[in-house]
Specification:
By secondary structure, this protein is of the alpha/beta class. The protein is built from 15 helices and 12 strands.
Amino acid sequence: MKNLLVSLDQAGDFDEIIDVRTPLEFAEDHIPGAMNAPVLSNEERVLVGTMYKQVSPFEATKVGAALVARNIALHLETTFADRPRNWRPLVYCWRGGKRSGSVTTLFNMIGWPARQLDGGYKTYRRATVEALTTLPSQFRYVALVGPTGSGKTRLLAALDEAGAQTLDLEALAAHRGSLLGAWAGVAQPSQKGFDTLLVSALRSFDPARPVFVEAESRRIGAITLPLALLDTFHRGDCVEVAASREDRSAFLLHDYAQLFDDPGSLKAQLERLIGLHSRERVAGWQKLVDENRRAELANELIELHYDPAYARSSHQHFTQLPQALKISFRPNDADVVDQARALLAQLDKRSVALV
């Protein structure tokens, strides 16, 4: 049979990309736009792998082949039952081996001109890692720098609505970035999944226009940002965002409402601050949680935790911060998009050429 392998740069030539790995493998990361049609379930893959080590490769392969055959048959009767005669799928598994090879061969026997991704997911992952070392430096960033509660995330969203290019790292990471920043009930993506989302976002940008980004440290929850991105936007232009203490406290109370509504979870999160703060101070904050003194807790966190952390980190990382445009932002007002447009106009006067 003629060579059915194709390279990653040919992926766009196909009607559909089919990931035949297990649901767990797919959930961790996958090629953007791919659909999951597993030929082994999570449990079946563990079974075959265990047999391979404990019984013999031959017996494991024989059992695995039977399972794969049954699962492919089921997909043909359901998942792919409506695909037309000229359907051109690209199929991949972990490293372009037996799973994707079996599906590709059978598809071609049926009459679909399917192809197999050479090297499988590992080829895609290698390309993603390589892109993260070079792609971030192709853009010019404008970092929104300011203390927690000043509404940088809300300003970033308003800038996006106003037509600017924005990179929302916290949205990609599903985390607000601080120790109390976990999204209630929402799991963060895997590191590999985040990397895929980041590369996809960067590839959507126009290099001729700046990219607005919120100031972040190296880690956002469990996610680690690539050094090439950090190095580039740490050297870029800055906008220093300030808000009144009252606005910041109100913003935190609103933004962390779900956390405040779950006292047990909030107290557990505060427990993690021991080491940065004394046990006595953290116990005092937990007592404020028990007494539902939310505004007092928000103000103490701003004064004793967030602001000192901001003072330590921002001037250390952002080399252009002394030349930053300083703005006063009202994050709780209804006119945040108008405030974003006013910021764009100010920056345009400073010849940043934003839009």
